[in-house]
Amino acid sequence: MLLFLALMGYIVYFNVVRAKQIVNSPYNARQDNFAEQVIRGNITDRNGNVLAQTEVAEDGSENRQYPYGEIFAHVVGYSHEDAGKTGLESTENFELLTSNAFFLEKLKNEFQGQKKQGDTVVTTLDANLQQTAYQALGENKGAVVVMEASTGKILVLLSKPSYDPNQIGEVWQLLNADEENSPMLNRVTQGAYAPGSTFKVVTALEYMREHADYANYTYDCAGEITLYDTTIHCFDSTVHGFEDLRSSLANSCNASFANIGLSLNRASYRQTAEDLLFNKKLPCMLEYSRSSFAVNETTGDAEMMMTAMGQGNTLVSPYHMALITAAVANGGILMEPYLVEKVTSHAGTEIRKNVPKSYRKLMSSEEAAQLKEYMRAVVEEGTGMLFAGQPYTSAGKTGTAEYSMVDGEKTHSWYMGFTNVENPELVISVIVEGYDGNDGAKAVPIAKQVLDAYYN
Asked: What structural domains and CATH numbers belong to the chain?
């Protein structure tokens, strides 16, 4: 009887939890059977703009089309008989090859020997905002992600360089051979970058947790800090003078945060980073890279100084930084991010709808409120003042991460932030990778262009 109950329990579990994953597996030949009976459904943005559709020729041949070309390549993905499937084309394969058309329509198609039309996947994406982000990023390599803080809906997920999924069959070999530009890499979720000064938000949180009197922190910045043979400079060797924790974050003072790093408990620092999902799984329906935080009990002082200011061995994706920002904006609670608003029949009848749900509490509401105020100071009086005076309020954190290349030192430019500080609305994370570092913080104006387009 126990064996029978265990078997029945597994059958129920399989059908409720595992069935869709098994059906969606690229190794499952049943998908080919679905495609023989169903015309692959459309993928649209939240306003009904078609992002992917199947054109059927007079001879019955089918051609998958992507009206926006490379703008949505990494998030919508592609479906091709030789190249396989990626993005939403892969994760929503079962829905796209399922038809919930009216039964009389399906009956008519059966008698006429015609395929049924597959269901439509309506995403949370905003085509106009995605196009704005694409144009704002220009010729730069990088990524932009925008989501709603209170719901987890993703409005923009853009990676550059990109590729045209309409030509995937013809250029498949060339795309995979391009190691310099890596156009197939989804930099939003799969990119792994040093976080630069955006990581100072994590360091500030750890300092707050270790020191109940964090409001009394002071440091006299002389433009640099030296310990043994390690010297860390503030940007342009700027002398910030006396600072508290708030102004240290607002001014992005490297010396102050290096000083903070020397005082931190290594085990506690690692725990805080892991509370924020470093070294952990992320809630993400697309392929992603785990972020890494390497501090442990054996980490030396020099490494602690570098880590505290966002260099060191820490690696993170733009998507992950958006999640951390969303938790700060949402009172410490991270809402589960999602890309699919609903699934409908091709005629528009709703089949399934996703609703916002909490993923995890990453920090206390008190900690989130304090970090929110510090990030507001970045915009009002610090390195993010480009956002000051807009019709929307904002809070954020800028960042630059330096790294060495064969042709010299390069810089990644970061911005992460959120809008409408009192009642947070949009969260944005932007990275511009690999520029020479002499033409300013590139990520900030890009983020501003995207947010301006949304509110104006």
From this structure: 2-123 (3.90.1310.10), 130-339+355-455 (3.40.710.10)
